[in-house]
């Protein structure tokens, strides 16, 4: 951080400044703002144990960063506080029965299912630009100060910081939960060199509920507050760039990008809030969710349809890999000659990775039939 702490900050009424900050944040589409301390040492043993167990899978950057995630002042020297922000992403058009609608989509093997968060604009772009604008508003108010903005883009313990700053509590599925907003929201942070007043943390309210553990299709939530990414469908369909393990393909069902099951089943998500911004409205392609239409996209069409979305970063090959698994599962449920023909037509020219998944899909469907 290049800028020294402005002495004028100490002359401001802390609560008045925080009230202003929350007002600006709301104008920018955020629903909640908190402030966390930077001493996360209590979280280090859990992070170390998770890494040592190999639960990060092929996300080597997790191990490379190590305990830097739990040390904000090491990541950004000079940091004194972390401003945390919550932005709700449930699409504005979602009805009161949105959870039932999502479950219905998951039960339809002929339909491609994507995580709700991915159906609109890339949240990295949305939050990063708005967090930067929030920092600029603060600069206008108090003068230059040192800061850096993060949105799921650096070694940051987002859920830990959110929990410590009153955004919510860590649920058993490891996501942040809020009594009045569930878990359907993004988190963002601004590391600052300002001694802002800390927010009060909130207590957890999961109780004896194990719904998220019980519903996980692949058993990725291996214990309360512990996820093995190597079994998580979100990891398998987004982060992993190699073959999807054979033993997990059937359980993936029709999920072609991410998985929302642990959130759909969570009782607290009956309170999920609609987005305050239009960026997360679902695009028409995802509303249709037609497997054959999505499979037929060329790479150029894939790039066109996913421009500005988080989906684009997985690339066309992983996209087709995921679709091959979903189509194989659809064919296991009911024969559809057009889907089988689409797989067979692409097999001769497919890359080794895609060919392996196409072959599995065709063999699995034949065995089921």
Structure description:
The chain is elongated. The longest helix is centred in the middle third of the chain and has 20 residues, at about 125-140. The protein has helices at about 15-25, 45-50, 60-65, 70-75, 100-105, 125-140, 160-165, 210-215, 235-240, 245-250, 260-265, 285-290, 290-295, 300-305, 315-335, 335-345, 350-369, and strands at about 30-35, 80-90, 115, 145-150, 170, 175, 185-190, 220-225, 225, 255. By secondary structure, it is an alpha+beta fold. The strands form 4 sheets. Strands 1-2-7-4 form a 4-stranded antiparallel β-sheet, sandwiched between helices. Strands 3-10 form a two-stranded parallel sheet. Helix content is about 40%, strand content about 10%. Mean pLDDT is about 90; it is low at about 1-10. The protein folds into 2 domains: about 5-95 and about 120-190, NADH Oxidase, CATH 3.40.109; about 210-270 and about 280-369, no CATH class. The chain is built from 17 helices and 10 strands.
Can you tag this structure with a few keywords?
2 domains; alpha+beta; about 375 residues; single chain; disordered N terminus; 17 helices; NADH Oxidase
Strand-helix topology:
Blueprint: H1 14-27, E1 32-36, H2 44-52, H3 60-65, H4 72-75, E2 81-88, H5 98-107, E3 113-114, H6 123-142, E4 147-150, H7 158-164, E5 169-170, E6 176-177, E7 185-192, H8 211-215, E8 221-223, E9 226-227, H9 233-239, H10 246-252, E10 255-257, H11 261-264, H12 284-288, H13 291-295, H14 299-305, H15 315-333, H16 337-346, H17 352-368
Parallel strand pairs: 3-10
Antiparallel strand pairs: 1-2, 2-7, 4-7, 5-6, 8-9
Helix pairs in contact: 15-17, 16-17
